[in-house]
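User: What would this chain look like folded?
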Amino acid sequence: MNFHDFVSIAFWKICGLLPINHKKILFSSYNGLGYSDSPKAIAEQLLSSGKDLDLCWIVKDDKQAASLPSGIRPIPMRSLRRVMEVSTAKVWVDNCRKYERFKRSGQYYLQTWHGFALKQIERDAADHLDKSYVENAKRDASQTDLIVSGSGFMTKCYQTSFWYDGPVQAWGTPRNDIFFHPNLNTCEKIRNTFHLPSDCHLLLYAPTFREDHNTTCYNLDIKNVLCACRNRFGGIWAALIRLHPNVADQSAELFSYNNTTILDASAYPDMQELLVGIDFLITDYSSSMFDYALQEKPCIQFAPDLEAYRQERNFYFSLDVLPFPLAQNSEELCRIIEAYDFETQNTRWAHFRQQNSFCEDGMASHRCAQWILEQLQK
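Assistant: Here's the prediction, encoded as structure tokens.
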């Protein structure tokens, strides 16, 4: 054990002697990447409850801290203060594996995870994961008190693939509640953010990243795709491009942004708000397609590197059986858009949704908040 580890463990032990605050709930999303995803949805439910609570949020930097609303305290990730806050919070809420050394008796941990799994994950992908990640995942699973699920498929995945033998509740996915409570202000907010007219239809291209950070796969012909959208659906169209944070810094090199019809949305903090505000989604292997489909809006998979990606990480579902048309080049994508049939695609989605026992109903955040409030009383 080196000196740093010795000091860290000693501080954890000291903080473990402090009293647990029965009003404190500690949140984290994507390892400190700001106010987003299911933890955000749960926090907003708690903020609206009127209860006297101490809500705090782990953040990587000042930019992420600035994303927090009034009523939530930022906690710097790389600080001894984080150890103190983690050690004294009654409840933890996260959507990723946590990297905490100790969880005390009397503390509770709610795990929401971060999406419907298309790619094999956790134990099912252990051969592709670092040994250190696997060790941490097992420790994290041993600390977890509850996982919430949005489908029967994911419930089974949590029970068999997460090194976890605790309860899983089919309460829905908190971040997806937004699709069941339509708010025209969200659509207006998106267009105002990008300085677009209110009658502008929006296409979002949101691919995931590759383990080797290769970007040659993002060879979407945006101009022709927008033309195909105009031909099929009419009206004026603009495209938002949202790259994964791991490669977002290369976005300007990859796309010819003109800030009128092709715009960079990689820095927009809330993916779910974007999914509410857009009219068409193009993605590849991202779980966003399953979230977006809850609105029964058009979605297409664009996967020019399908075979190479399959070697990197296998799938639970073959892409050609998913309820979303699959294109492997821009020409094929444009043809699919111009022939897009809503009735056929909605029927395919309804079958997939039933087959995998989706349980989304817009009440997941409420259920999670109620569970948290119950734990605060223990």
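The radius of gyration is 21 Å. If you want, I can go into more detail on any region.
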